[in-house]
Structure prediction request, 284 residues.
Amino acid sequence: MQHNVTLANGITVPALGQGTWLLGENPDKRNQEIDGIRKGIEAGMTLLDTAEMYGNGLSEDMLGEAISPFERERLFIVSKVLPENAGGEKMRESLVNSLSRIGTDYLDLYLYHWRGRYPLKESVSRLEELKHDGLIRAWGVSNFDVDDMEELWSIPEGRHCLVNQVLYHTGSRGIEFSLLPWMREHNVALMSYCPLAQGGALRDGLISNPVLMQIASKHSATVPEIILAWNIRDGHTIAIPRSSKAEHTLLNAASDNIILDAEDLAIINREFPAPDHKVRLDTE
Prediction:
């Protein structure tokens, strides 16, 4: 892949990875989804994101089968722990179950999926223990806004957080007002989920947007490719689009070859301006 992101621990990962939300839940589509994941890995999308929540472990199980032909060290595997499991012995139990389903001895990155009842200091302490024991190489968070990140940074070991995974795409730029600048200042990488929007009217509006269609035509590309190229434009963002079909996965991978010029970016900014005030953190 041309575009890569170097995390604060010095590890470099591809800017385009693969998400698995909703994958693995339909047995009739399992082989198709596995083929898509494998084609993506072969195309360089070796960062793979999943979570214990997705299909109550079914996505992790599907991912485990998908990665079985590949060398483990070639992959960067990310999973997430649910808030109700983010403290005490529950976190270790959750991680061991995730590792078993995926079929690996360790995770490259373990994310606290969103905040729950456990004190943040407790969750950080458990994450650090798992890292010390070699079950995870690093950890991060998901769906944390600025106030959450500031609280995390008030915990000394909280500053070991490498990534914050939040929703981000051309139609949802709220994080650019305060959260993203904070993350840049503190060297926390952005991992954007649903970088093509989840679906419904918003996604349809993006895919059929005349401005994006014009830019896509200019680059002999599809609109989703342009949206992904925009998402990873700055060298600090990892996008994890989900696809259940190999042909869509390969189109996602192809966006790595697109370089948007200043005119393209200016046009997109006019069509989809970033907010000039603090807005609620989008999650859907």
